Amino acid sequence: MKKNRIISLLLLALMAATSCGGTGSGTNDDTSADNSTSAADTDTGTTAPEYVFADIDCGGDNFTVLNATTTWGFYAYMDFETQTGESLDDAVYERNRFVEEKYNMKLEIVEDDIDKNYEKYRSSILAGDDTYDTAYIRCDRIASFIADGYLTNLLDNTGIQLDKPWWDQTVTEKSLIGDKKKLYFASNDFSLVGFDGTLCCYFNEDMLDDLGLDKPYDLVRQGKWTIDRLKEYTSAAANLNGDTSFKWDENGNAIYGLASYEDCVNGFITGSGENYITVDASGQPKLLANAEHFYNVIDKAFSIIGTEGEFLFMNDSGNSHYEMIFKNGRSLFTIAEIKASSKYRDMNATFGIVPIPKYDEAQDRYYSHRTHVCLTMSIPVTNAQPDRTGAILDTFAYLSNRDILPIYYNVKVAQKGLRNDDSIEMLGIISESRGFDIGEGYGWTEDLSAKVNTMLVSTKKNNVASLVDSNRSKIEESINKTLELMK
Prior knowledge:
Blueprint: H1 2-15, H2 23-27, E1 36-37, E2 51-52, E3 62-68, H3 87-103, E4 106-112, H4 117-126, E5 134-138, H5 143-147, H6 169-175, H7 193-196, E6 199-204, H8 205-211, H9 217-221, H10 227-237, E7 256-260, H11 264-271, E8 277-279, E9 285-287, H12 291-305, E10 311-313, H13 322-327, E11 331-337, E12 351-354, E13 375-378, H14 386-413, H15 421-432, H16 438-441, H17 446-457, H18 464-485
Parallel strand pairs: 3-4, 3-5, 7-10, 7-11
Antiparallel strand pairs: 1-2, 5-13, 6-11, 6-12, 8-9
């Protein structure tokens, strides 16, 4: 049902870009009246359960959130000093002013680089400083905070409704491990980086027309969009076009099937329904529980990545960046984050989006990879009022889900090349199929994943099995240490 709701939001956003959402009306609620509100369930026409606001008066206190900056173009904004005239920015601004009035508090967002803000977080906790009520740091940096006992168990927090749709259920469910399950991080719609940082396939519709190839939308609908079908496209597109080799030349003419960066490997892995780590029914994390299928996925992905002309690994600056290589018509496909679409608004050619392909047609559904820099929320042990913080975060998450997401989708949809029902439908599939790799979330496989990615895309070798074997004992030891913390 949530998938249908997302698609409905996309349709509504496209039809009413400036009027959708409801944040403006939310700010006019009479906070002296009852503490509940209701929202329409857009896919059924029924009324969703009322949201009960917490009975909180913060007495004018600051509510301080440590956030990341917009590094790499992610929409990481959580507040603005004034309205900007941009619909998404203004909805964020109005949401925040409403919550401030509702709870008699002052929102303070402290920003630092997405690669550095976790250091500021750690220093604050080490000093016993209660400056930050909560923090949003990249998910692959949270593990050390758990190991050092710096975070509160969110399952004990009475203010957070983790089972509600405004909290990311995939992150919550996959992160519950061990006999006595604990949860030290979560994801919600207060931060949009988790959407912006989701991988998808962009393709050049004009180039497909020139090649006489069908657009892959129907393949997606029929469940036939697979790695093998993607390879048919990349093979057809690879063309020296007068150049003497496929070695990258910014001023050359060669056309590539697919241009991307290291994380595309994780995109193929997740897209095939695999992860480095899976959790069994007893809550025990296992490294490559389905090893044979995992290696088959690697082999199939490498049939594209390892073929000259079909794949180009290029992550330099300017026109030698994979996003720009695609934009300039030098590749038929790129695997990139949703946020990359903002770079393509003035692209000369028409582009479309589809999910990362499945392993084969027998696979039950599509899965989309959320990059390791996506942000997760935590509450530090230095917070003297974690339940109050949880309730405030829950409200931000609820209002973001209800009011911000429709406008966010409009920003992503209402742009050149995406104003059609096909792309709206595909974006809904991508957003609602987001996975979460707990190996990265807990830091167990971060090093292994980086080595595998480099081996495949850079050195063009496929010795992944030996790489896994050489790292297995270290990873399993790390898993066991984490499980000890969960007791």
